[in-house]
Every structure is written in structure tokens, then in C-alpha cells.
Amino acid sequence: MNWMDEILMPQISLSEWNQFLSNYPDAHLLQMGEWGELKSAFGWKPIRVVAENLGAQVLFRRLPLGFTVAYMPKPVFSNELHVAGYKFQVASKQFWKEVDSVCKNNRAVFLKIEPDLWTDGLDLQPSTFTLPPLSFKISNHNIQPPRTVVIDIRDNEETILSKMKQKCRYNIRLAQKKGVTVRVWDDVKAFHEMMTVTGGRDNFGVHSFEYYQRAYNLFHPKGICELLVAEYEGKPLASLMVFANSRRAWYVYGASNDEERNRMPTYLLQWEAIRWAKSRGCAEYDLWGVPDADEEKLEAEFESRHDGLWGVYRFKRGFGGEVKRAAQALDRVYNPLLYWAYTKYINRSA
User: Fold this and answer.
1) CA 21 distance to own-chain centroid
2) H or E stretch covering 185
3) Total structural domains within the chain
4) 3-state class (DSSP) for residue 180
């Protein structure tokens, strides 16, 4: 028997969860039922909890000896919370009782929550606060990149272009002049091969072909995602997978090979993804991940730094968005000793 089936939990089905989310049209991509289904095929167990009009999709990852880590990414109730230095409000006791029950029965060492809200200049060093019967603490470790660039795409296309860096606008037009075209694509295998090239060149991890194919199969039929490719004379040069839900869009996966890079295909590709999101009625486009530093440091060091996400910041800054930081992750600890050991391991691995 699979460990995911060993414990029966009070939980709602995928269809019931999607019905619940219909009350939250701006739910984050990571709370969508399809995201839980995607992760379920790659070592995570999704459980959806709803109580007193509050809900969250919680993902469980198995640890040695039958323990787990619980992860609640961008829960839909975040904007209703007002606790400590954050703009949170304590959710219902019944909701947390259900969450705690699910976490304990799945032997979670701790629950990590990444709130779906921006810091907006708040002091992010609050003291530990308590929600009975257990406590939250500010985590030192985020799973998603906390800092990103968000582009306001409510204006017309000319206005959006005018807010970009001059060099970025030039590269978009250069790609068009040099014969680069962008179209909808469905060749996930070729996309994965291109991702492998990009990961090797830029030193980042790449998911398996099966992962990208499952993501495409889950989200594309519902109109939530599109795979776009930039080509020159029929030859694929760059590709990306973009997601959209209601007013928000996210650039999550992108790749390019080493051919015809002087034609600047990635710039035109990103612009067409923005246009796709705008055509869907989105108001903002999230470029998903830059180095976790304030804008002053980003601007001072992006030309000299090449490690981590610094290379992608050089590219993303050109599109004229606003640098934003998500509220720091919170940990709700169930097993203090194992939590201490886990955090020591994570800190040593970082």
C-alpha cells in the first residue's frame, strides 16, 4: 500500500476544492487543485481542508521514518490575517483545528505556510506569535523565491512597452526585425530538451519530461496555461510555459537553446506571453523569482553578479515591472526536536 493511502483524513475531493475556489477567483496558482494533482505524481500528497468558509490545499512530503513536512503555499485566506508584523488576522479556530488534525495524522514535523501577500515595506521581524494550541514562527527558509518582479499589464500595449527599459524594447523589436516569430506550441518533449540545455548552461535544476507533460495536460485543457515557442525559419529557439488565473499571470518555466541568440528570441517570447496574459483579462504578470535583495542592491550589483538568480534579474528588470517581496514563510511546529534537526540540515545545505 502506498504511504499516501495509509491514513484516511477528513478532506474534500478535487472537484469540491475547485468548487470552493470559485469563491476565490484570484486564488494563487499554487492553491489550484490542478497544482496539487501535479505534485501528487512527484512525491507530494495533497489534502484540501475547508472549515467555516476558510480553506487551504496542504502538500505533504515524506521524510525518513514515516515523518512528513507539510507545506501550505499561498493559501487563499491570507489577506484576512493580521498577526504580529504581518497584515494577517487569526483564522477560525475550527479551521486550524482541522489543519492541525490533518498534519498530526500525517506525522508532520512542521507546517510551512507561504502567505499570498506582499510585504509592502512592513517590518518583517515580528516575535513568535501564538494561535492555540500551537505556535507559528517566522521561518528562515522559503520554498518559493520570495522576491519577484510584477508587471502591471492593465494599460494598453504601447503604454506597457513605454515603461520597459529602452534596451528591452529595442531587443523586442530587433527580434521581430530579424525574423523571429512566436506561436502556440504543444511539443512538451522538445520543450523539456530545451529546458535541459538551459539548466546546464545557467546551472539550475530541471524537472523531468513527465513533470512538464503532466503540468501541460492538467492546466492547458482548462485554458489556464499556454506553451509558446519563439522560432526562426521554423527552428525553435526559446520557449516558455505561462499560467493565468483571473487577474494574475505567472511566468513559471522558460528555456532557450544556444542557437541564434543574437536574434533576441527570449525578449519577443516574453512580450508575447505578456500579450497572451493581457488577452485573458489579467491585470498583472509575475516574472516569478529574482535574487532576494532590495532593489537598490539589485540595481547596484546585477551587472557584476552571475550566481543564483542574478542572471535572470538582468533579463527580467528590462520589462519595467515592480520589484516585490512576498511575506516571509511561517512555520507551525509539531515536533520541536525533529524541527530543530531539519532546520540544521537545511541551513547546512543552503
Assistant:
1) 18
2) none
3) 2
4) strand
Query: 95: which 3 cell numbers?
Result: 479551521
Whether the CB-CB separation of 225 and 243 falls below 8 Å is answered with yes
* Pair 48, 109: CB distance under 8 Å: no
Largest CA distance in the chain: 63
Do both 24 and 89 map to the same domain? Answer: yes
Q: Which helix (H) or strand (E) is 208 found in, with range? A: none
Could you tell me what percent of the chain has a pLDDT over 90?
A: 71
CA 107 vs CA 31, 61, 62, 102, 347: distances in Å: 22, 10, 9, 9, 22
Q: Which contacts of 163-172 are long-range, i.e. CB under 8 A and separated by 24 or more positions?
A: 163/320, 164/318, 164/319, 164/320, 165/317, 165/318, 165/319, 165/320, 167/318, 168/267, 168/318, 168/319, 168/320, 171/264, 171/267, 171/268, 171/318, 172/264, 172/267, 172/268, 172/271
Q: Rounded to whole angstroms, how far apart are CA atoms 191 and 214?
A: 13
Query: Which residues neighbour 128 within 8 Å (Cβ) at sequence distance 6 or greater?
Result: 135, 136, 137, 138
- Report pLDDT digits (tens) over 161-182: 999 999 999 999 999 999 999 9
Are the beta carbons of 21 and 11 closer than 8 angstroms?
Answer: no
Q: Does one domain contain both 180 and 310?
A: yes
pLDDT class of 306 with cuts at 50, 70, 90:
confident
What CA–CA distance (Å, rounded) separates 248 from 282?
Answer: 5
Within 13 Å, how many C-alpha atoms sit on residue 51's CB side? Answer: 15
DSSP-derived secondary structure letter, 309:
T
111 beta partners: 70, 332
Is residue 14 located within the same domain as residue 62?
yes
**Cross-strand bridge partners of residue 151:** 285
The stretch 209-226 carries a mean pLDDT of 97
Q: Do 305 and 191 fall within a single domain?
A: yes
Per the model's pLDDT, the better-predicted residue between 120 and 242 turns out to be 242
Q: Which domain, by its residues, includes 116?
A: 3-143+327-349
